[in-house]
Every structure is written in C-alpha cells, then in structure tokens.
Amino acid sequence: MNVLPLTTNVSRLNGEIQVPGDKSISHRSIMLGSIAEGKTTVSNFLSGADCLSTISCFSKMGIVIDREKDFVTIHGKGAYGLQEPEQLLDVGNSGTTIRLMMGILAGQSFYSVLAGDESIARRPMVRTVLPLREMGAVIDGRMEGKRTPLSIRGGQLKPITYELPVASAQVKSCVLLAGLYSTGTTTVIEKEKTRDHTERMLAKFGVNVKVNGLNVSVDGGQKLKATHIDVPGDISSAAFFLVAGAIVKDSEVRLKNVGMNPTRSGIIDVLKEMGADIEIHPYSGNVEEEPVADLIIRNSTLRGTEIKGSLIPRLIDEIPIIALLATQAEGKTIISDAKELKVKETDRILTVVEELSKLGANIEATEDGMIVHGKTMLTGGTVNSHGDHRIGMMLSIASLICNSNVDLEDSEAINVSYPNFFEHLQSLM
Ligand code: S3P
C-alpha cells in the first residue's frame, strides 16, 4: 500500500482550477451513447477509473469507443446493438456503472455476468435486482442476488410503477433505462428528489421523459438519437476546493465551469448557511442541459448548522468534506437522515469519524449521520482512505490545516474520480 506524506500547515491557497468533468454525467454519456443510433461525442469526459470501467464494459459488448484525452466518441449501435460479452463485465469500484448498466442489460436477451472490487462486493445490489426481476429479468447472484457477482439474462420487459424504497438516483436510473425496453409506461416514484442527470440526458438523446413532481415516466420502445454531450465540471470534485478555500486562512479559490444542477448543489446551500464567503457567477458557455457556474470562495468565519431531510440527497457525496468543514465552524453541526452513507464505497459514517478523530476532530457517529463539535485545531498522524476516493481527498484537504505531519495510506483511491487532484491542489499553494 502506498503511503503519501501530505502537505500540512499551509499559509494560504490562491488560484483558479478547472475541475474535471462530472462523474455521474460521464458514465451516462457512455451508456446512452452506446444504445443510441449513430456517433455520440463527449467533451470534458472524466477520465477517472470509474468512468473508464464503464467504457471497458461497453467495449466488451462490442461498442467501439475512442478516447483522446477528455474527448470521447461512441459508435452507438442502437437499443439492441449490444453483443453478449465473452468475459465478465468488471465494474471496478463503480456503483453507478453496475446499477445503471443492469437496467440496460435487463433489456437484452443475452447472458452477462457483473462483478467489481471488494467494495462493490460489499454493497447492496438487491435495490436494483428487485425491480428488474419484477419487470421480468432473470438475475441471480451471491446471497440470492443481494451481492455481486450477479448474472443477468433479460429480454422484453413488463412496465412497472415503482416506488423507490431509498432515495437513490442509481435505482431510479436503472428502472428508467429498463423501462425503455418495456412494453408500456414505466414510472418511478421518488421518496426525495435525487440527481436528475439521466432524465436530462435522455431528453437530449430525443427520448420523451415525463417528470411530474416526484414521479418520472418513460414509454418503452423509444429510440435514442446520437448527440453531443459537453460534460460540466463535477460539483462533487469542486467541493474539496470549496471547503479548502473556506477553511485555509487568507485563501481565495476560483473554480471554473462547475455543474450547478439543483439536485446536486446542496453543498452551496450549506456553505452559505455556515457563513462562507462564496460568489456564484452563472456561466454563459455552451452547456445547455445542465446549469453551470464559476465559483469564488474565500476564507471566513464559519458557524455550525443542521443538515437533514431533502437536503441529504442533494449533497450525499459531499458529506465527508462537509464533516471536515464543520470541524472549523463554531458550535455544533448535526448531520442526520443520512443512513445511505453506510452503503457507499465505504461506510462513510464510520470512516469519516474514525479518520477525522485521528487528526484531533471532535466528532461522533450517530445512527443516521454524525455530530461535529467545532471549532478544533487539527493535529496530525497516519490516516487511511480505506480505498474510498472521497475519504482520501477529504483527508488531503484536512492536512492543509494540520499543525504536524500527516501521512495518507492508500492515496491511489483518489484516481477513481479525480486523477489530477494533487496537481490541482499544488497549483493553489
Ligand atoms: C450517483 C448516485 C448516488 C451517488 C453516486 C452517484 C449517480 O448514489 O452517491 O456517487 O450517478 O446516479 P445513490 O443512487 O446510491 O444514492
């Protein structure tokens, strides 16, 4: 395992960063491009390990995908153009790859087997297996289909109306994609509004998606037409530098072209609520389907806050870095209604609390979230990403304000979503 000495005691951060393309949108561009008819092009694609897993899976099903740096061309073969893969489809560390791809595979009459790394092997798959079985797909796997490896044989599906038992865009997207292969109207009813990139991108590919409050419907049999997708910067990656700018004294950090989809921008609401000095400049570039802005953040005094309810799905991936932010805020920050954290790349309630405690934070785990008591001076020590990219990046930002040495174990996990993270961090010092 590689151990990386991190930079500590930083006096200020200053500069501008173009954060990499959005991970959720990059995955979807490959999947929809593969089942569309014709050549789809993608700019600002995130070439992180997770999205490369998606490319590799669709390549194994006979789709030609050319990638030159962050520009990708997908030679789509239409809804029924995928071929039975000769090998296992390896999703690596990527929950989005496996859960969304299952929706597409459920509509294919061929047989496929899906598996990933040890984190994927621990994560619940029953949430996508159940609705797909209800639609008629034959799926088996370890623990009766609750865990990977999973095998799928699909075909023509029955439409369903499915009430999501958890707030999950992956499950919503899986059922909607399967709905394209069904003989009628498939409707998903959400508990809370989750990220709507699938709905927006399906529309861009010419599919009629009906959204009515928390209900989303698609009719089966619709064809996807190839298009161009310009991927906005990932707000979940920007979040690390937003927090860095907010907590490192005398800092000013400018972030260009950040995706500001309202289903993803909960971190901005939290920063404002905590008293951060943040400027938002809506961007007038060429991204039509997803709102984008340039952001500027400066260091300021912060206060604790409460984060719960419908805000949670809007910032679920940012909770590790928000926990760090809360260590630098005066008073108590309470995060609740966030049980889903337990089934992310790691149990993020445990890993956040364990690792931040090592650095001297006053933080406790609760049943469905955590409580952070601020403001605390962070110290130093040996910390571990637990193979979770967002824990690795959060700890690297924490070290900036630590007053003694910090070593990060398993730092390579960061490649999953932000391969040039350390280069960008260095450019601000
Ligand atoms: C994602 C949805 C979320 C999020 C994940 C990406 C997506 O997961 O945590 O990083 O691209 O749809 P859930 O659907 O499990 O909440």
Give a quick set of tags describing it.
single chain; binds shikimate-3-phosphate; UDP-n-acetylglucosamine1-carboxyvinyl-transferase, Chain; four-stranded mixed sheet; 2 domains; 429 residues; alpha/beta
If you had to describe this structure to a student in words, what would you say it looks like?
With 429 residues, the protein is an alpha/beta fold. The protein has 14 helices and 23 strands. It has helices at residues 23-35, 49-60, 95-105, 118-122, 126-135, 142-145, 169-179, 197-204, 235-247, 266-273, 319-327, 348-358, 389-399, 421-427; strands at residues 3-6, 14-18, 37-43, 64-68, 71-77, 89-90, 111-115, 138-141, 147-153, 161-163, 185-189, 209-212, 215-219, 228-230, 252-259, 277-282, 292-298, 306-307, 331-335, 362-366, 369-374, 381-384, 406-409. The two termini are 27 Å apart. The model has no long low-confidence stretch (mean pLDDT 97). The structure holds shikimate-3-phosphate (S3P). Residues 24, 96, 168-170, 173, 195, 316-317, 340 line the site of shikimate-3-phosphate.
Number of strands: 23
Name of the CATH homologous superfamily of the largest domain: Enolpyruvate transferase domain
CATH second-level architecture of the largest domain = Alpha-beta prism
Hetero groups in this structure are:
shikimate-3-phosphate
Largest sheet: 4 strands, mixed
Strand order of the largest sheet: 2-15-17-16
Structural class: alpha/beta
The CATH class designation of the largest domain is Alpha Beta
- Low-confidence residue ranges: none
Average residue-wise pLDDT = 97
Q: Could you please say which CATH topology of the largest domain applies here?
A: UDP-n-acetylglucosamine1-carboxyvinyl-transferase, Chain
Q: Which shape, going by the Cα principal axes?
A: globular
What share of residues is helical? 25-40%
State the end-to-end distance: 27 Å
Helix count, per DSSP?
14
Nearest-angstrom radius of gyration?
21 Å
Instruction: Report the portion of residues in β strands.
Output: 25-35%
User: Could you say how many structural domains there are in total?
Assistant: 2
